[in-house]
Amino acid sequence: MKFPKHKKRYCPYCKKHTEHNVAVTKKKNPGSLTYGSKTRARLRGRARGKGNLGRYSKPAISKFKMTGKKSTKKTDLRYTCKTCKKTHVQRKGFRARKLEFK
After folding, report:
1. 1, 17, 26, 87: which could join 96 in a potential S-S bond, CB 3.0 to 4.6 Å?
2. CATH number for the domain whose boundaries are 2-101
3. 3-class SS at 100?
4. pLDDT tens for residues 51-74?
């Protein structure tokens, strides 16, 4: 997919639309459960008096139709503002096999 090197978009630091440089970084691998969600899950079980019902000790079901390796990865674009030189990330990644900057 072809993508522009420079894009005009909203800068949360300048609080206005400015020109941005676009760079792609390697997508970081998120953990299955973050620390906050672990704590919340623990509290949720404690409130009902049943624990987590073994919810996090069971393996994922691999016979679902939606399982399997995807052929594409989601993009992780970083936008650097040309005026304040601060970088911010995109809110939502999109799936693309290959990103090419024009």
Report:
1. 1
2. 3.10.450.80
3. strand
4. 666 766 767 777 777 767 788 888
